[in-house]
Structures are given as structure tokens and as C-alpha cells.
Amino acid sequence: MSAHGTPFAGTTRTRPTATLTESITAPGRRPGRRPYDTDVTRLLPRWLLVLVIAVITAFIAAPVLYILFGSVNSDVAVARGEYFPSEFTLANYVAIWDTVALGQGLVNSLLTAGAVAVASATLAVSTAYVLVRFRFLGRLTMLRGLLALQSVPGTLLLLPVFVVFANIASATGVQVIGSRWGLFVTYLTFALPFSTWVMVTYLRGLPKELEEAARIDGASSGRILRSVVLPLSWPGIVVSAIFAFLLGWNDVLFSTIMTTPNTRTVAVVLQVLGTAQEGGAVPIYGQMMAASIVCAVPVVALYLVFQRYLVGGLTAGSVK
């Protein structure tokens, strides 16, 4: 300092260093307050957000509750338009097993859709591993073909598939139409491209260093697929398997044309139940809604069991 208290030449005044909280806190925001608690980052006011969520929930829950209430109500009361049942009865859940072959339809759907899910997921992970990790002629064409197959509606393929199966039956004497395995092949044709593309997207996000380390240790490609890729790919495998299962479980078009009364799936059984009438006048609304609840139980249970895998599998590859 000079005698007059001024700084020497070449020196500068320094201000105190800001604290860490001040340096990272945005202007106008109080320290310690989380970003999602501010009105700046919230899209809607809290009261309006609660109102929107309540309206959406009511919109989704209303038809489900109507089916649930109708399943424990009489057919005449449902035909009159009653939303809340005047009297609760479980007679519909008992009668559906004798009105139509619902049990046989459930067994056929579980066997067909379950086999499609397992086969589709198994073939998809091995096919996707080859498409992602190896370079060969026609690889990009195959990947683009998987996407192209998703844009073809199933209605256009109904007649060609039926003709092909009919020609196979006439040439070999093996009856395809009306059998479970014929329906299995049909569903696998549509489920496998989608499952393969899901696994391609998932495997692209897996680090290659794990496979390279296993290869240095002397593991073959098959051993790497079994011991390294499969344990890390369970979320993607579950997602592809569940979507393949739903394809076979919800299908009505192919199962109506390509099944017999002994091989009908549950979707066709519900369709038959919807056309049945009680006493030739009133449709059996109560039994139809009770059967819908029973048929929804396996799918809901499937989602609840594999819920933790679905979250990881559906978001796989989004960051990459």
C-alpha cells in the first residue's frame, strides 16, 4: 500500500470467493430449494395438475368399473343401463364355464401364446446378437427388412397365409389349418421381427468390453452369448416375450379363420359368447363381462410379475 492508502501499481482488488451454494444457485431461486418445487419448471399449477390427473384416471377407470359391476349384475339390469348393480351376485362367474368352452379357450391361448413368447424371445436374442456384433453382406438389408415388415397390416397377409397352409396340407397331407401349431407358426411370423428389433436396440447399448474380455479368456461366440449377453439382456427379453404373448392372446382375425371348435383361443370364445342370448331375447351381458374379467387376469398377473423388467426394457437404448 502507498502512503495515501491506494494500491500499488499492478495490483488489483479481489472480491471474496462466492460460496458453493451461491455459485450453483440460479438467480432468483432460494438456496436449498429443489428445482421441481419451483413454479418456473412446473408446466401446470398444482391444482390444475391434480384436476387433469383426476380426469384422466376417471376416464380410464370408468369402463373398467362398468365391466366389473356388470359382471356381478343380472343381464336384465345391465340391459336397462344400470351402472351400479342393484344386487350383487357371482352367478355369472359360475355360469360362464358351462355356457361356452371358456376353460378350453384359456388352455389353447396359454399354450399357443406362451409357446410364441418363448420361441420369439429365444430366436430374437440370438438373431439380434448376430446382427449387432458381426458385419456381413446383407446385414443392413435385413435390419431394414425388419422395420418394413412392421408396416404391413396383418389383414393383407390373412389370405396368403391361408393359401400357403392349404397348399401344404394338400401336398403333404398334414393338416395345418385348425391345429395349434399352425396358429403358432402364424403368430411367430408376426412376433419374431418385432422381438428381433427390440433386442437389436437393447444389445446396441451393452458395452462391448465385457464380450472382449470374455473372448480374451478363450470364450467362443456361443459361450459369450450364453454367459455374458443373456444375463444382461433379461429386460429386453422380457419385453419382447410379453409383446409376443399379447399378440397371440389378443388376436381375433387369424384365430377365427384358422381354428376349429376344439382349438379356439379365448378371444374367439369371447366373440362367440358375445353373440349368445338368454331366452332368445336379452344378450348375456353379465356373463360376457365376467368372462372378460377372467380373461384379463393372466395378462395383468404377467405384467405384475415382470413389471421391474418392463421399465428397464422399454427404456433400453433411449440414451444411446
What does this structure look like?
With 320 residues, the chain is mostly helical. Helices cover 67% and strands 1% of the residues. The chain has a two-stranded antiparallel sheet with strand order 1-2. The two termini are 59 Å apart.
Write a brief structural summary.
Helices cover 67% and strands 1% of the residues.
Q: Strand-residue fraction?
A: under 5%
| Major beta-sheet overview | 2 strands, antiparallel
Based on secondary structure, the structural category is mainly alpha
Count of distinct strands: 2
Number of helices: 15
Low-confidence stretches: 5-29, 35-40
Shape: globular
Question: What topology emerges from the helices and strands here?
Answer:
Blueprint: H1 20-24, H2 46-71, H3 75-79, H4 91-99, H5 102-133, H6 139-150, H7 154-172, H8 180-203, H9 208-216, H10 221-232, H11 234-250, H12 253-257, H13 266-275, E1 277-278, E2 282-283, H14 285-305, H15 307-314
Antiparallel strand pairs: 1-2
Helix pairs in contact: 2-14, 4-14, 5-8, 5-11, 5-13, 6-8, 8-11, 9-10, 11-15, 13-14
Provide the descriptors you would attach to this structure in a database record.
single chain; 320 residues; mainly alpha; two-stranded antiparallel ribbon; 2 strands; globular
